[in-house]
Amino acid sequence: MHEPYEKRLNHKADFRVKYKFRNPEEGERKTGEPYQGIRCDFSFIDESENKMYMIWPEFEDEEGNVILQNNMPVPNSGTARMWIINNQMRPYHYEKIKVGVKGNFREGPMFSADCEIIEVLDLKSNPTKNR
To answer: First CA to last CA across the chain, in angstroms?
Structure first.
């Protein structure tokens, strides 16, 4: 059972994205289907390919609820809540995270999914210091 990040981190998600995992011809992940709790990084399309940030997805079901099963693959496309893990980086992202901005989920050098920001949530009200 997945423990929601909201409970673990004691604050709400920073933003939401719509995502689509890439197919094999586009560089799909090589280690099987993704599950809830995957800790892939995030990169912005308009930045250098080498820049990645600890911003983790938490996948939602069709109604926008967090998927709690971590023993079943998540949908190939859908929506996810996004969590900036390094709170000290939060101010750096204030101007970058906007509706319509495109990015990728990254697993090391591999671009495993394409995504677009669809909603900014509690980005600026979440803590800026690590506990």
So the answer is: 25
Query: Cα 96–41–71 angle (5° rounding)?
Result: 130
86: phi then psi, degrees, rounded to nearest 5: -90, 100
Q: Please tell me the pTM assigned to this model.
A: 0.90
| Lookup result for tokens 């949530």 | 121
State the Cα–Cα distance between residues 97 and 81, nearest whole angstrom.
13
User: What CA–CA distance (Å, rounded) separates 46 from 117?
Assistant: 13
Per-residue pLDDT of the chain (131 residues; tens, 9 = 90+): 899 999 999 999 999 999 999 876 666 666 667 889 888 999 999 887 779 999 999 999 999 999 999 888 899 999 999 999 998 999 999 989 999 999 999 988 888 899 999 999 999 988 877 54
Which two three-digit tokens encode residue 102? Answer: 């495109």
